[in-house]
């Protein structure tokens, strides 16, 4: 669990207009926060700065009150799910999900790894597919494996970058429900980037609306819905 605070965050690529322009936002412990806005508004850049994949030009990023601007991604204990899944094609579903645990060398026994992978895969209804390779799975199943890999570790927060945009409409609806359910069950701080209005209005506790790198407003879906 984690509180994430963005204080006057700016990101400039080269000397152009800032991709993220003075964004301040407090994400509470256990909160489900959505970043929404059109392509190019700076959503992914913000998310990547939270994870540590992108340098911050100015401003401060705090996780549980600690400044993390210069902390490497692996030292932040956050779990990211990408749009393109980034699964290992030569590994089975089991080994894809187990991968983050194996990276923490010597920390988990084989039995522990088996237990954690089982727990994650049963929550995501992947039990029957553990010995298959990603190439033989449907888009929805692949997305579940990517989520399994994120939840298998005791991460402090989940970060999703447009995780459903490669799925068809039906699966998108189904996965939306699953993500919402999983987040409530685990009560883990979640930041979710999307350009999809339906996802923005149904998934989160609050929605942060971005436009050209500027934070326009932060409100609950209900408040946004009731706006004139
Ligand atoms: P979004 O996720 O909302 O589509 P991005 O964060 O990807 O927006 O991009 C915000 C802006 O920053 C865009 O103008 C984009 O072209 C630019 N940008 C993103 N990544 C880079 C990069 N690595 N180098 C230069 N410009 C970038
Ligand atoms: P998104 O799906 O968030 O809009 P894109 O598909 O636009 O992302 O960008 C994918 C990758 O390309 C990202 O790593 C991003 O940082 C990089 N990128 C985006 N815009 C630019 C740019 N103008 N110059 C260089 N790299 C960019």
Automatic annotation (TrEMBL):
Keywords on record: ATP-binding, Cell membrane, Membrane, Nucleotide-binding, Translocase, Transport
Domain ABC transporter: 4-228
The keyword Acetylation appears for this protein: no
Cellular component annotations (GO), alphabetically ordered: ATP-binding cassette (ABC) transporter complex, substrate-binding subunit-containing
Record has Membrane as a keyword: yes
GO biological process, alphabetically ordered: carbohydrate transport
GO terms of molecular function: ABC-type transporter activity; ATP binding; ATP hydrolysis activity
Name of protein: Putative sugar ABC transporter ATP-binding protein
Origin species: Mobilicoccus pelagius NBRC 104925
Organism lineage: Bacteria, Bacillati, Actinomycetota, Actinomycetes, Micrococcales
